[in-house]
Amino acid sequence: MTQSQRITLYILVLIAGAAWIFLNAAPTDTPTVNTAAPQAGFTAPDFSLKTPQGETYTLSELKGNAVLVNLWATWCPPCRAEMPAIQKMYNEYKDQGFVVLAVNSTIQDSALEIPIFTSEYSLTFPILLDEVGEVSRMYQVRSLPSSYFINRLGIITEVVIGGPMSEALLRARIEEALK
Question: Would you state the CATH architecture of domain 48-178?
Answer without folding.
Answer: 3-Layer(aba) Sandwich (3.40)
